[in-house]
Amino acid sequence: MIQIGENAWQIPVMPRQALNCFLLGDVLVDAGMFFSRGRILAALQGKAVGAHALTHAHVDHQGATAAIARALNLPVWCHGIERNAVETGDVTGSFANPRALTARLQQRFLAGDGHPVARALAEGDSVGGFEVIETPGHTAGHISFWRASDGLLVAGDAALGMHLLTTRPGMHLPYAHVSWDMDHVRASIRKLAALGPRRVAFGHGPAVPGEVFTGFAAGLA
Ligand SMILES: [Zn+2]
Q1: Among 26, 50, 98, 221, which is least packed by CB within 10 angstroms?
Q2: Is 169 helix (H, G, I), strand (E, B) or coil?
Q3: pTM for this structure?
Q4: How far is the CA of 7 from the centre of ligand 1 (A)?
């Protein structure tokens, strides 16, 4: 695990930090792919974990959600808009076009099991000492986690910290073909930048200093 702040850890589940989960306080945020269960459980060994929250219900974040929630008996939390996808395991609804090939392939080969949602999260809720920030765009119910006391922001896939084909670190917009609405993507990045983060962590790629993120936001068309 990589410590990204006080009581805040990044759990890389793929090489080069290409895919990350987080332990924020006692809350596991995101759960990698369906094959990430063992790696995440190993990382959480000896840590107090009381709940599992999701930034959004894509297959690379909900993959091991049900398996880990069952293994550790954790309540699962997500934004209300993501609730149906998390509970049913049908993640196609979060795509702009649920019938698109990417959506159907991901559903068929990569989607994790559904699991009941114990708590629907919304703007301003407290999770593991962080504040929920609604950041729709990549999915309609995407959320980020913000801690004003030290300026730590866990942005999920609101933006990417890495090019996913080359795995080269750097700021990118989430890809349009797997995103719900790109205008909302840009608006949410600006909303996060306006918080003035000092450090920003992502679902994909290594964490960056706040000014890298805010500079990226300022350069958006
Ligand atoms: Zn992702």
Answers
A1: 221
A2: strand
A3: 0.96
A4: 23
125 CA distance to ligand 1 centroid (A)? 22
Q: How many domains would you assign to the chain? A: 1
State the Cα–Cα distance between residues 91 and 168, nearest whole angstrom: 27
Distance between CA 23 and CA 12 in Å, rounded? 11
Note down the domain range covering 207.
2-218
At 52, list the tokens. Answer: 């599992």
pLDDT in tens, the chain (221 residues): 999 999 999 999 999 999 999 999 999 999 999 999 999 999 999 999 999 999 999 999 999 999 999 999 999 999 999 999 999 999 898 888 888 888 898 888 898 999 999 999 999 999 999 999 999 999 999 999 999 999 999 999 999 999 999 999 999 999 998 999 999 999 999 999 999 999 999 999 999 999 999 999 999 97
Give me ligand 1 centre to Cα 218, in Å: 23
Residue 221: count of CB within 10 angstroms of its CB: 3
Between CA 141 and CA 29, with CA 162 as vertex, the angle to 5 degrees is 40
Structure tokens at 46: 């000896």
Q: Calculate how far, in angstroms, residue 25's C-alpha sits from the geometric centre of ligand 1.
A: 22
Nearest-angstrom CA–CA distance, 116 and 131: 23
CA of 174 to the centre of ligand 1 (A): 8
- Residue 29: phi and psi, rounded to 5, are -105, 120
- Which CATH number does the domain housing residue 157 bear? 3.60.15.10
